[in-house]
Amino acid sequence: MFVEVRKRASTRHGGAAASVGAVKQRRIVFAARHYLMHLRELPPCRFDVVVLEPDGVQWLQAAFDAQ
Prior knowledge:
single chain
């Protein structure tokens, strides 16, 4: 499992979850592939996002796929 943690002080610009756009997702997937290529066996993987906002914490399981 790979987890991206995002925090924003306000939701004025879409909130913390909105900050994990397509470009950020591609960077995370690239880093994950680089890490995984050094392992003998590939474990099951998913990409989660943990969002920290003034009103609480939200865990978005399987927030995006490696495509």
